[in-house]
Write a structure and sequence with these properties.
The protein is of the alpha+beta class. It has six helices and 25 strands.
Length: 373
């Protein structure tokens, strides 16, 4: 018989995070449930939609061990509405009872053994990341992955171990842009052949969402079950690795350039946002014109007019012009924190490369748009 006493604040946090993994579809009713477990180590809430699983540990006073499965939506909505300090949770004869000094509530339960296991085995530990580093570096990469579920190979973040590098590489691309971070998590992964994983973007984003004040992020992988598991202090995020061949991204990385421009990220971000007001009526196309000591961002549409914003830049090489999808420029400039950005290009039909002078291990590539005039 499950019996535990929990501080409402802790219960709300755990429920709110676990809810991210609750299925939005009802083909399998049990996937609309939480699994609640009272164990010697604490109180656990689990949820899964079979693509991703989340298990959260909540500090609690455990009076009796046990488990119960309860409808997630009603349970979470109810918990969010409460203001009591402590809640006592018990499970008796198919009912989950919640009570406090002025509260008595019960929910119907389903057999907990019907709830799917989140993983068969935890797997081997592959890497450890500091929270700040993981959040910063994945944020600069993950946005470039494809949102198209019909392209599974491009819908994840690729992690690979390069023999000549101390850390691992993070790569994401949707075929129109690419983000690459080299030498991430130095010392991660042991053998080169054991360091290639294609992780669903959703898993990475849930790890980012697991806001904890302290503690490193641990990465485990199981080749037997083809699963990846991130452990974040009192939470586990589990996902199934994408089984697809990742494209040879190295082929599209330019090795030289004719024009190089160093500019301020904040100024460029404002310029792109301004131009997008006009560009959204013209397929989001924004032209970058590189002069002798400046970059002009231009957008025009016959229905709304035209706009040009010029920012200062340090230029090396030839004057040049290239056009990009303005949304891609906005995504990139909004994902980084550095003040200075280095842009390199060889011509209007070749990929544009964005680098960070303070981080030579990072680059972002955007494919150009062919425009007339």
């Amino acid at each position: 018989m499950l019996e535990a006493v929990i501080l409402l604040e802790n219960l709300k946090k755990g429920v709110s995070f676990a809810q991210h993994a609750v299925s939005q579809r009802s083909q399998l009713p049990v996937l609309l449930n939480f699994l609640l477990e009272a164990e010697k180590e604490g109180f656990f809430i689990s949820a899964t939609d079979l693509e991703i699983g989340i298990r959260v540990k909540i500090p609690a006073k455990i009076k009796n061990k046990g488990k119960a499965s309860v409808g997630a939506r009603t349970f979470s909505d109810f918990i969010a509405s409460l203001s009591q300090e402590k809640i006592e949770i018990t499970e008796i004869e198919g009912k989950l009872n919640l009570s406090s000094e002025k509260l008595k509530t019960s929910f119907p339960t389903t057999p907990p053994d019907e709830f799917p296991k989140l993983y068969q085995e935890k797997g081997d530990k592959k890497a450890s990341f500091t929270r700040d580093s993981f959040e910063k570096e994945t944020t600069r990469v993950v946005f470039a992955a494809s949102q198209d579920i019909g392209k599974p190979a491009l819908s994840g973040v690729y992690i690979e171990k390069e023999e000549r590098e101390e850390g691992v590489r993070l790569v994401a691309t949707d075929g129109f842009r690419l983000s690459l971070k080299k030498n991430f998590a130095k010392g991660a992964f042991g053998k080169k052949e054991d360091g290639k994983y294609l992780i669903p973007v959703r898993v990475i984003k849930e790890v980012q969402n697991a806001k904890q004040e302290e503690g490193d992020i641990m990465l485990f992988a199981s080749s037997k079950s083809n699963q990846i598991l991130f452990e974040v202090t009192d939470a586990q995020i589990i996902g199934r690795l994408i089984e697809a061949e990742y494209p040879d991204y190295k082929k599209i990385i330019p090795q030289d350039f004719e024009t190089q421009a160093l500019f301020d990220r904040g100024e460029a971000l404002l310029a792109v946002r301004t131009c997008l007001v006009f560009a959204r009526e013209a397929a989001n196309i924004i032209k970058m014109s590189i002069g002798k000591n400046s970059i002009s961002f231009k957008a025009s549409a016959s229905s709304v007019g035209e706009n040009e914003v010029e920012i200062e830049a340090k230029i090396k090489g030839e004057e040049n012009e290239i056009a990009f999808n303005g949304r891609y420029l906005l995504d990139f400039l909004g994902s980084i924190e550095e003040d200075d950005v280095l842009f390199e290009m060889t011509g209007p039909l070749n990929p544009g490369v964005f680098k960070l002078p303070k981080d030579p291990d990072y680059l972002h590539i955007i494919m150009p748009i062919r425009v007339q005039g």
